Amino acid sequence: MIEALASMGYQIGSMALDDASEVLDVEDRWQLAMVERELRARTNRMWMLNGVTMFDPRQTFIDVTVDLGRDVTLYPGTILQGRTVIGDGCEIGPNTRLVDCVVGDDATVANSVGMEAEIGRGAEVGPFAYLEAGAAVGESARTGPFYTGRAE
């Protein structure tokens, strides 16, 4: 392969890596899961070193596109995806999935799912709430259990 590329005019070189996991090969779902686990560990470590509390980083999933404020607490089973933004002092989880949501400072979201929703400052969502795309929970509002938020 290297000889073929060189004969086609491609520049060939080498580099030393301190961490072999930087170039892991993925050929099946098991290997993909192992690479995802490594990326998750790095992402979670970065957030924890920046003041986010995670009770179990192995059970906390944060996309690299997510933004977390200061003093955020994430409980096990939390999944934050897409362009989710979590404000300062929030408590999220356990068992909560937020996709493309905006959560205001000091809000609490427990055992709930949110899709493209907005949660106001100091609001309390859940347990077992479902926020549909476009749903909004106002500042300091409480949803109560089994709430379904719909777009206005």
Q: What do you see in this structure?
A:
This protein is an alpha/beta fold. The chain has a single domain, classed as UDP N-Acetylglucosamine Acyltransferase, domain 1 (3 Solenoid), CATH 2.160.10.10. 18% of the residues lie in helices and 23% in strands. It contains two helices and 16 strands. The protein has a six-stranded parallel β-sheet with strand order 2-5-8-11-14-16. The longest helix has 21 residues. The chain is elongated, with a radius of gyration of 20 Å. 27% of the residues are buried.
Q: What labels would you give this structure?
A:
152 residues, alpha/beta, UDP N-Acetylglucosamine Acyltransferase, domain 1, 6-stranded parallel β-sheet, 5-stranded parallel β-sheet, 2 helices, 16 strands, 23% strand
Topology:
Elements: H1 2-7, H2 29-49, E1 53-54, E2 61-62, E3 67-68, E4 73-74, E5 79-81, E6 85-86, E7 91-92, E8 97-99, E9 102-103, E10 108-109, E11 113-115, E12 118-119, E13 124-125, E14 130-131, E15 136-137, E16 148-149
Parallel strand pairs: 1-4, 2-5, 3-6, 4-7, 5-8, 6-9, 7-10, 8-11, 9-12, 10-13, 11-14, 12-15, 14-16
Subcellular location: Cytoplasm
Main location: cytoplasm
Organism: freshwater metagenome
Q: What order do the helices and strands follow? A: HHEEEEEEEEEEEEEEEE
Distance between termini?
A: 58 Å
Structural class: alpha/beta
Q: What percent of residues are in strands?
A: 15-25%
The CATH superfamily turns out to be Hexapeptide repeat proteins
- What's the overall average pLDDT, rounded? 94
Strand order of the largest sheet: 2-5-8-11-14-16
Evaluate the radius of gyration: 20 Å
Largest sheet: 6 strands, parallel
Coarse morphology = elongated
- The CATH topology assignment is UDP N-Acetylglucosamine Acyltransferase, domain 1
Taken together, the total number of domains comes to 1
Helices, by number, come to 2
Helix percentage range: 10-25%
Low-pLDDT segments, ≥5 res: none
- In the CATH scheme, the class would be Mainly Beta
Question: Number of DSSP strands?
Answer: 16
Cofactor: Mg(2+)
Enzyme class: transferase
GO cellular component, one term: cytoplasm
InterPro entries: GlmU-like (IPR050065), Hexapep (IPR001451), Trimer_LpxA-like_sf (IPR011004)
